[in-house]
Amino acid sequence: MIRSTLLVLVWVGCPTSAAAQATPRLSLGATLAGVRSVARDAGGRQTSTGISVGGALSIRAGRFSLTADYSEASLRADGASNERGLVEGSTTAAIQVYPWLAVAGNVTAHRAMEADPERWLTWGTSARLELPLIGRQVTGLAEFRQGLGGEVNIPNGGVRSQEGVLGLRFTLLESAFSISLSSRLGTYTAGGRTRTLEHFGIGVGWNAP
Amino acid sequence: MIALMLRRGVGVIALLLLGSCPALAQAPASFLTRGIDAYQALDYDGAAGWLRRALSPPLVEALLPAEQVRGLAYLGATERFRGHVDSAASVFRRMLRLDPRARPDPLIFPPEVMRIFEQTRTGFPIVAISGAPEAFLDDAHPVYRLQLRPSVAHDVALTLDRSDGRIVDTLYAGPVGDSLTIEWSGRTRAGDRVMSGQYWFTATTVAEGPSSCRVRLPLEVAVRGADTIPRPLPVAPRPLPERAGAGDGPAAFVKAALLGSAALALPTLARDADAAHPRFLAAAFGLTGIVGYLRFRKGAPIPENVAANAVARARWQHQVELVTAENRDRQRRGSLWLQVSHPLTLGCGGA
Which partner from A41, A130, B51, B123 sits 20 to 30 angstroms from B311, CA to CA? Predict the structure, then answer.
């Protein structure tokens, strides 16, 4: 993991003339989403639902960007009365290959506050498409993340993960603010246990002019 | 009478003989000396012959201006004593054209000569312009000084003219008494630095009558150290299309359809996924595709592109204004190299 992190840092920090000359630009975002978590193992399947609130910070310099996001959710299992927490965070270092395509390396972590808390840490690569659908006012987003490895605090024979994100972003003409509608689905498998996390919600974003 | 004829004849023969001598032909100063000697010997005809020859082309070109002035003073006095008053006045006008401040020496010439000269001078207003033959105008040397020296106090207009005759600026208009120093900052009437090229300083005597003179001082200007920056290129070399093309609507629909299909396929990532939300999103993509298709039908205006182009144009124009101002400032700060030549006198009646 350390080696992968170093590789990502070297990749992000690798100077190019364009990046060196670009002025960093800041973006902030906040999300409110419905969350559905499904934990499956040999003993059966448990589904929890709730609401998550989160935020994201992104810095872009030329073709390079670095994004960190964090969210917290309170989930209630089917048939249960008590709520459990879910904390998620990720860091993404991306390079814009084309105006509509970015590739990235990312590290994702989440912790489910259950009777026996699970702490998942995965890392991998991703590709993100941004396609203008109605000018630049409405943009379609699609992202797929493929896990390359990970760690989890349960007996496992290796961590596998995949994640997909689809969304629509609405930007007012010449405005720094945007509203987005997105659906995110992630699946994490280790040692016969699979956790599926689904988010569907809205977000607001602000791009520094 | 016979003696006079003999004397004239001898003088003419002597002039012809000397004129054919190459050594003397190359030494007009010696003609001048002989003429002055003849004047002092009261041989006025001989003096007139020697002096006119020395002061006529091509020999006169070998004489210094001060020598010419001296010779003209003796020639004017000679003509006076020969009884040719008009010729004397004409010679004195020529002397004043050469140097408006020149005067016959009253210790050498008698009052009757000085009287004719003064009469000529007061009726012949002309001004001399002089300045350093070469000069730089920059921050350390902000002005170029010109001196106006008139033959007699009178009104003068001093202008800077282009080679095509158009006036760049009027530097002075008013009376000039003994002498006057005019300072020129190297700028036009609008306050801009003059461009490289040929100019004239023109001093025009403001006086009625045929004796009104113009004196022009040729000026060559070279702008140095004022490299300007190029005009910026437009921010976007190709502006965004302001009307939709034939393929824009279908392209929007196809992109939305692809994303909608991806949304429908998203639940296949996980066994336990719920397909409801992705379906909702797929419907939103479908609706967006339809709106995009209708919005971008061929020829439909694209307001966001119009606005973006307007913003890009405004930014570019702002940059152009900045560059123009910077270039104007650089031109103002750049140094000018000035070179002036000998003055020319024009339009003096009776000279």
Answer: A130
